[in-house]
Amino acid sequence: MGKILENRPLARGYYRMSFEADFAEARPGQFVMLRVGLTHDPLLRRPMSVAGFENGVCTVIYRSVGKGTAILAEIREGETVNALGPLGNWFDPPSDAKKILLVGGGIGVAPLRFWHRRNGGKNAVAYIGGATKEDILCKEEFAQTVITTIDGSAGTRGLITAPLVSALEGAYVLACGPKGMLKAVDDLCKEYGATGELSLEERMGCGFGVCLGCVVDTAAGKKRLCVDGPVFKTGSVQWQF
Amino acid sequence: MGKILENRPLARGYYRMSFEADFAEARPGQFVMLRVGLTHDPLLRRPMSVAGFENGVCTVIYRSVGKGTAILAEIREGETVNALGPLGNWFDPPSDAKKILLVGGGIGVAPLRFWHRRNGGKNAVAYIGGATKEDILCKEEFAQTVITTIDGSAGTRGLITAPLVSALEGAYVLACGPKGMLKAVDDLCKEYGATGELSLEERMGCGFGVCLGCVVDTAAGKKRLCVDGPVFKTGSVQWQF
Amino acid sequence: MAILKVRIGSLELSNPVIAASGTFGYGMEFAERLDLAAIGAFSTKGLSLKPRGGNPMPRICETPCGMINSIGLENVGVDAFEMDKLPAIRKSGAKVIANFFGETEEEYTELARRLDAMDGVHALEMNVSCPNVEKGGIEFGSDPAFLEKLTAGVKKVCGKPLIVKLSPNVADIKPFAKAVENGGGDAISAINTLKGMSVDVKTRRPRIKRVIGGLSGPAIKPVAVRMVYECARTVKIPVIGLGGIASLDDALEFLIAGATAVQVGTMNFVEPGICQRLAEELNAYCEKEKIADIASLIGSLITE
Amino acid sequence: MAILKVRIGSLELSNPVIAASGTFGYGMEFAERLDLAAIGAFSTKGLSLKPRGGNPMPRICETPCGMINSIGLENVGVDAFEMDKLPAIRKSGAKVIANFFGETEEEYTELARRLDAMDGVHALEMNVSCPNVEKGGIEFGSDPAFLEKLTAGVKKVCGKPLIVKLSPNVADIKPFAKAVENGGGDAISAINTLKGMSVDVKTRRPRIKRVIGGLSGPAIKPVAVRMVYECARTVKIPVIGLGGIASLDDALEFLIAGATAVQVGTMNFVEPGICQRLAEELNAYCEKEKIADIASLIGSLITE
Ligand SMILES: Cc1cc2nc3c(=O)[nH]c(=O)nc-3n(C[C@H](O)[C@H](O)[C@H](O)COP(=O)(O)OP(=O)(O)OC[C@H]3O[C@@H](n4cnc5c(N)ncnc54)[C@H](O)[C@@H]3O)c2cc1C
Ligand SMILES: Cc1cc2nc3c(=O)[nH]c(=O)nc-3n(C[C@H](O)[C@H](O)[C@H](O)COP(=O)(O)OP(=O)(O)OC[C@H]3O[C@@H](n4cnc5c(N)ncnc54)[C@H](O)[C@@H]3O)c2cc1C
Ligand SMILES: Cc1cc2nc3c(=O)[nH]c(=O)nc-3n(C[C@H](O)[C@H](O)[C@H](O)COP(=O)(O)O)c2cc1C
Ligand SMILES: Cc1cc2nc3c(=O)[nH]c(=O)nc-3n(C[C@H](O)[C@H](O)[C@H](O)COP(=O)(O)O)c2cc1C
Ligand code: FES
Ligand code: FES
Fold it and tell me: Which residue among D61, D65, D130, D231 is the active-site one?
């Protein structure tokens, strides 16, 4: 149980919550499972990427999309939240990567923000895509950004994969976002000679490897997204929709 | 949906909540069904006696005893509560009653407080019993009070029925409290020549007469506590435990 | 306005939202809480030939996302229903489904005959989750062959649409659905309550005097959706889905899974206006989604 | 310390709180979240002769106070269990119940023989909610006569306590409990998941790829308590109760209704330390209530 220091809207439908963690450290790419409410409806914890971790304070950035996240958004600062974590693996680009492209779709920016806070430098460029300008999160927190929106209300109109193409050669990609985007990035990496890591999402029962509710088919067989992921190497996922 | 103007502890485990009602009036003895939380756990509304109604503001006094009332106690002032009501019948002593005894056990004081605010006068004496002094509520709101506690920490040690006996003759009783107390009062009224009204409790599914979950056996057959009560005449209830 | 009309046998409902038996009294209790003519129909508290007093208290208790009831089919009896309840209901413009049950085959038939003749009753809903006194307490709804025979017998005296309400306390609901269809039933409603129990740990007593009661509410929705899906794939007659409906999405779940109409039970207690709200929301939903006729939604589940 | 020891056949557990199959992995996943030796036992993920990959995704979804799963009995297989999992578990001091299932009677017997011989496996739990391939997909646990035969056959090769886990998807669980007892089973565990379904209204697809899955969690607790009560009144062998346990009071409900021990399933996902917490709370409760021996609580329901 950690005290909530901040829980406020970032943009329409998006919130940022910071709380005192009862774990000592988290790495960019890892996630926490948040308990929502005090009763059994909703029952399961909700997975949220760690979007920041400093001085024992854990930050998540979330979008209110359903029952659980709507309740999360109602919790007041000063109350407590029960977070299980940090869980899963993390982004781990080779230390000699010359060009790192952070590709985030919508709320997928959350773990990339954390990575950038820890490791950001001249060699990292953020490619952020969203439906509208309201869906472009945290852009001011990245050193260099390329932005696209589907409605053209910010950056270039279109998908983030469009500007990405020309930058891919020899790059190392860290991507998080909707499944369709991740598959497109995965395909493009192959086509344009890039490698990298993709952070996936599936419904999760437990978050720590025991329910087998979150499996992903990969080149190396069935993997549990929560313990063998959420981060998978490009070229390894066998995409299913 | 009514805005909550006040929701604060009265004594250990007891709370008072006032909210803007979306009904125009309520009578002492009536109750409301409060919705608790936004999800389906807990599912059913909780019945609460109206403890006050002035200028469109409805007050309830409640004890945190379980899941629902614990959640109620957590709601902050400024938020809203969904109350269905006013429901049930009400205290209706004859206008020529010379001596009215308000007999309340524990949280049973709530509707008596409301009656007293509306009708209190020289002829009304409140008999308030509780386990300890913490369970004696609202005593300062009644003009005349007789108090007992089981542990002797306030008033006389013992049950409220003890001091009541000597006052019963010719009196009209309005009583609310635990079933055991109500039965004792009912028996004593018969024995000592008093009449009056008793406010009962049963688990309620609906509060407005359709689930048939709250029936009471009376001299006149099966009655629904929520629409034919909660107030029943002394001598009419066939007590079952 | 989207077309929300659905047919249950020869009965046309203006929309597919029905208030479920035992949770809507005899209708008029809700007259000041919603417009009875704005919902598809309501099903009455289960009627018997003679009035019944029902079970001892306590009769209800709450469970996680649900409740258990053991009301014991308390009702005013078919005579009082006709005399005291029906005249007012008729005036309200409500479509009325008379829910009924007997303890013998003859009682069922006799009730059906009576209700069939009543002006203001639009359809009959036969509850077969009751013990058959002649067969030593075995439930009518627990043997498909017997259910088919019962249905056929009742249908013989009943010109109005006959809905048979199935119990979920079976290993496989499909043969029961089939039995209703074979017996000439016009529709199936599913599900009734699941048998459940709860213990008060402080007193070590069952929370329900009769120990075992019927579980209803959102908790049972997944079981209900599953059974409605199974029934709808088994028979051609309409299936009315119920069990835990609390929102538009819940109602849509049942429709998509194959229900022609839905009933709302327990949630009437929590939100007395819910049936009308759902009917309105269903209309708004169809307009927004450009669904011209609700028929195209029914059974539209994609499973490839 | 109150006496919390309970016996399941020849196996003595230090307390009656067991982690349920499929929700506790192979045990070691919880080693850093609780003390495996502090809970009564844990039941492994269901084991088969060969490793199984399980069902397509999506495999789980949430429902009101519950969840549906269709994992499809994915497991590492009995060989990998013995080689890779058991050595570490043995060191942890945990009492291990090996949950297993087959597709034919021979597979069941073969598995029981294997598991019976493994050092570190303390009891066997036979899951009979699986389709029998030889009998055309009929579930092993859906015919009492067949269940009795299966139990007797397995018991012949199995010296360790044999627990048979019953399915709740039956009209009446009592004949199944009796069949296990008659077949020589040492205990019953009840209940497995209820068959349920959920529809994603936006996509009009089932939320579970295989359409129908198993419902678990607090939602099913009233059904589970009822079935455990029915089983405990039917047989003399111990009944292990499970279904929706999330708190001390929930565990007590089952014990009072007649369960000798309880299992916690779904709630392990939400609160990984829950089994140890409940074991500790049970001890504190017994001390506070002056219950010298938990035996006096078991089946103490007052119904007069
Ligand atoms: C590893 C991981 C990291 C995530 N990080 C973030 C983040 O940083 N910010 C953020 O806003 N969202 C994140 N998500 C998605 C987030 O978990 C869901 O949006 C959230 O669970 C929705 O809950 P709900 O109750 O509001 O929605 P509902 O639709 O009511 O949820 C119903 C059930 O489905 C599950 N579910 C629904 N959507 C998703 C989804 N997209 N992924 C997984 N499960 C889902 C819920 O957990 C719940 O069990 C992440 C998901 C995963 C798997
Ligand atoms: C007409 C009437 C008026 C009431 N007025 C008041 C009041 O003014 N102040 C107050 O504190 N309490 C009052 N009560 C009792 C109050 O309704 C219960 O204390 C409350 O419902 C407990 O809810 P819970 O979730 O905290 O308890 P839980 O034990 O978790 O509740 C479980 C279920 O049992 C029901 N229940 C539990 N205790 C009672 C009870 N004593 N009576 C009826 N149902 C119960 C709940 O409503 C719920 O459905 C009144 C009850 C009735 C019937
Ligand atoms: C208090 C109560 C009384 C009920 N009485 C009847 C009845 O008389 N006849 C009947 O067929 N079903 C009866 N039911 C069952 C409901 O009509 C419905 O089938 C069941 O509750 C499932 O729907 P729900 O989850 O929406 O409540 C009753 C249910 C409740 C909760
Ligand atoms: C994800 C999941 C996987 C399960 N796998 C198994 C299994 O392999 N074998 C088995 O006998 N039961 C299995 N079960 C059933 C549980 O052991 C338990 O019987 C059921 O979930 C009810 O208990 P609960 O409500 O406490 O979860 C599984 C349950 C869940 C939720
Ligand atoms: S979420 Fe349970 S195994 Fe991954
Ligand atoms: S509470 Fe439903 S009839 Fe009284």
Answer: D130
* Pocket flag, ligand 1, residue A46 (CB < 6 Å): yes
Longest dimension (CA), chain D: 56
Distance A68 CA to ligand 2 centre (A): 27
pLDDT at A110: 98
Residue B234, number of CB atoms within 10 A of its CB: 20
CATH class of C6-296: alpha beta
Q: What is the mean pLDDT of chain D?
A: 96
Report residue D238 as tokens: 């111990």
Gap from A21 CA to chain D (nearest CA, Å): 17
Nearest C-alpha of chain A: how many angstroms from D293? 31
Average pLDDT for B212-239: 97
B48 vs B34: CA distance, rounded Å:
7
Q: Which two tokens stand for residue A17?
A: 């919550």
Confidence of residue B123 (pLDDT cuts 50, 70, 90): confident
Residue of D nearest to B40 (CA): D64
D268 lines ligand 4 (CB under 6 A): no
Is residue D286 annotated as a catalytic residue, yes or no? no
Cα gap D276→D33, rounded to integer Å: 9
ipTM entry: 0.97
Alpha carbon of A151: minimum distance to chain C alpha carbons (Å)? 21
Q: Which of B241, B127, B121, B116 is nearest to B175 (CA)?
A: B127
Q: What separation in Å is there between the alpha carbon of B61 and the centre of ligand 2?
A: 12
What is the residue type of C71? Answer: I
Q: What is the DSSP string of B6-43?
A: EEEEEETTEEEEEEE-SSS---BTBEEEE--SSSSSS-
Tell me the best of D59, D62, D266 to mutate to test the pocket of ligand 1, counting ligand atoms within 8 Å of each CB and taking the most: D62
Question: Which residues share a beta bridge with C116?
Answer: none
Is the pLDDT at D160 greater than 90, yes or no?
Answer: yes
Per residue, the 3-state secondary structure of chain D, as one string, reads CCECCEEECCEEECCCEEECCCCCCCCHHHCCCCCHHHCCEEECCCECCCCECCCCCCCEEEECCEEEECCCCCECHHHHHHHHHHHHHHHHCCCEEEEECCCCHHHHHHHHHHHHCCCCCCEEEEECCCECCCCCCCEHHHCHHHHHHHHHHHHHCCCCCEEEECCCCCCCCHHHHHHHHHCCCCEEEECCCEEEECEECCCCEECCCCCEEEEECHHHHHHHHHHHHHHHHHCCCCEEEECCCCCHHHHHHHHHHCCCEEEECCHHHHCCCHHHHHHHHHHHHHHHCCCCEHHHCCCCCCCC
**What is the widest separation between alpha-carbon atoms in chain C?**
56
Judged by a CB distance cut-off of 8 A, whether residue B40 touches chain D is yes
Give yes or no for B96 touching A (CB within 8 A): no
pLDDT tens per residue, range B56-90 = 999 999 999 999 999 999 999 999 999 999 999 99
> Does residue A137 contact residue A109 with C-beta atoms inside 8 Å?
yes
pTM for this one? 0.97
